[in-house]
# Entry
Amino acid sequence: MRGYEAAQILKEKGISIEEVREEIAYRKETGALSNAPKNEAFMNMTLNEVLRIEEMWEI
# Structure
């Protein structure tokens, strides 16, 4: 899934850009795998995918 599409889906689920940034920080600090996200909305996404979502959020 492309970052833009994923960002739109997360927005529809009520996820904020702050939550995206918190997930990125959590993964960088803990080395968490995609099956152990801080927020369930990010299940099965890699860190790179979450970073791409952050980049595409405002588009």
The mean pLDDT is 92.
